[in-house]
Each structure stands twice: as structure tokens, then as C-alpha cells.
Amino acid sequence: MKKNKILIQNSITYAMVIGFWAIVQGLSAGGHVSSLMKGLLVPLCIYAILAVSLNLTVGILGELSLGHAGFMCVGAFAGAFFTRCMENVMPSVGARFFFALILGTAVAGVFGILIGIPVLRLKGDYLAIVTLAFGEIIKNLINVMYIGKDASGFHFSIKDSLSLGLDDTGVVIIKGAQGITGTPRAATFTIGILLLLITLAVVQNLINSRTGRAIMSIRDNRIAAESIGINVTKYKLMAFSISAALAGMAGVLYAHSLSTLAATSANFGYNKSILILVFVVLGGLGNIKGSVIAAIILTALPELLRGLNDYRMLIYAIVLIVMMLFNSSPKAIELRAVFMEKMKHGKSAAKEA
Question: pLDDT value at position 199?
Fold first, then answer.
């Protein structure tokens, strides 16, 4: 019964995402989707992936991380760098994008392991501060980095592009604060939905596995988990690195939705990590479906309300408060439980009839 319930819940989440894709595709075919909404479709997928992946760390593992934008930044630049380097070797944009996704995900996962080994020994506010520092360090390192390529290979500098010493065939790929330019815009809404489904499959299968139960036991009571032989360091590092890898995958998708990628505060700064955390909290800690819904609503809402000028952010703030009360208020939780119970009784009565 429990397995069937889990399967139904997971299927509802997948169906919700696929249904959203089908509705948008139908509206687009009929010409009912504005250019503004078309520009939001890929970011909706990116933020949903980021919210689901961060929920693995914050909601399932129970650790507060504020460096998720840093892992997104690592994946974005690793993927964009690969795409630019392989222009002459691999002419197909689709093939380069595919391998860039694999590389960006892997590099972000490796960074998650390297950062997680020392950082996960900390708890609470200390962990949050260190992960926040990681995100800022990554962003600032990329802003002073110059990498070029010519016939003799790669050249690296932290001074300027002239100090790379490139020959006549050379090209500067990473240009410090200017970032990477010329990345093909290969990201589409359909690809974003596919990556979101992959993210949901990875996270939901992990949560419902033996490993997921071990991770949640660490969240609930670390001492009790250790007492029954659970390797706390191993499982915490596993959840953290998988979360980082999925953020890197979202970063690659983000890099290929822009022609110019720069490590600015607006793209990968502290506020970006806080925004992703807001999606997770408002969607419900540990609630994967809620993370997807919160990310979609709160990403689209400011743009949809742009015509209201001064009232736009007021309405946005009210929606935030209402969503928080709906997800966290004891009375709202009680009402939802009563509603679900009535639904079950109604289904049972219908079957008996």
C-alpha cells in the first residue's frame, strides 16, 4: 500500500510537469503565448530544477546551504567553456550541448564533494555562512580569470587578455568580468522540461530508496542514526554532491539560454541563492511537488504583473505571505488534512455505490 501511494504521488508530479508542457505547447501552436512568456519558459525550468535540487539539501538532508548559486555558476561556465572550445571539433550544436550538460553536471558534482568534505562537519548557521562564502569566491574567481586558446594550447592569466600571449590563431574564451560570449542558444523549453523530469526522477527515487531513508534519519536525529550504524558523513556528502550536480545541470541550461554569460551578482550572487531558498521554503521543506509549483509561480508572477507598475511588488509580497501561511500555518495544515480525508471517504462511498 505504501509503495503504491508513493508511486501515485510521484506519477502526479510527473503528470503535472508533462501537462504543463502540453498546455504551453498547445497555446504556442495557437499563437496565444506572448513573446514575454516565451522568454520565461526556459527560466521556469531552470528555477524549478534549482528548487528541487536545493530541497534535497535543505528539506531532505536538513542542512541550510546558501551556496547553490555557486554550484550553478560552476556548471554554467564549465558547460559554456566546453561548447566554445569544441566549436571546430564538434560542429553539431546539439551534440556539444549534450556533452556540455554531462560535463557541467559532473564538474559541479565534484565541487560539491570537495566543498562538502570539510563543510558538512559544520552545522546550522556556520554551514550556511561557509556555503555562502563559497558562492561568492567562485563568482569572484571567474571575474578575474582569462583563458585563451591558440595553436599551442590553452593560456591562463588573472591579469588581462593581452598577458595571455596568444598567436594570430588565438581566441580568448573567458574574458574576466565580461565572461564568455558567443555561446549558442541551444536551450529550449522542451529540453528544460526533460531535464526537470530527470531531476524529479533522481530526487524522488533517492528519497524513496534505502539511501533516502538513511539521509532523512540523519536529519531527524543524527545521534540515533549513528547509533544504528549509519555512516553520517557518507550519506550527507552523497545528498550534498547530488544536489550540487543537479544545480550544475541547471547552470548549463542557463548558460545556453544566453549569448553572453557573465559571473555577475545578478546571475550568481547571494540574492540568487536566497531566491532559490525562498522557492524551497514556500513550496514546503521536503515537498518536491511544492518546490516545482513555487518556482513556477514566483518566477512568472513578477513578469506577469509588470503592467501594474507600483502595485506589482505589493501583489508579489502578498502572494508570498499567502503561500507561506498555506504551507506552514497549523490551521491550514489541519484543513488540508480534513479535506483529504473527506476526499478519501467520498471515493470509498462512490466505489461502494
Answer: 96
pTM for this structure?
Answer: 0.89
Helix (H), strand (E) at residue 146: strand 146-150
Cα distance between residue 291 and residue 16, in whole Å: 13
User: What is the torsional sign of CA 296, 299, 301, 304?
Assistant: negative
pLDDT attached to residue 322? 77
Query: Are the C-beta atoms of 235 and 211 separated by less than 8 Å?
Result: yes
Distance, in Å, from the CA atom of 279 to the CA atom of 50, rounded to the nearest integer, reads: 9
Any idea which residue has 544536489 for its cell?
243
What pLDDT shows up at residue 251?
96
Longest CA span, the chain: 83
Q: Which of 197, 188, 284 is nearest to 15 (CA)?
A: 197
Low-confidence ranges of the chain (pLDDT < 50): none
pLDDT of residue 351: 60
- Cβ contact 195:46 at 8 Å: no
Separation between Cα atoms, residue 79 and residue 56, nearest integer Å:
23
Helix, strand or coil, per DSSP, at residue 274: helix
Q: How far apart are CA 105 and CA 2, in angstroms?
A: 33
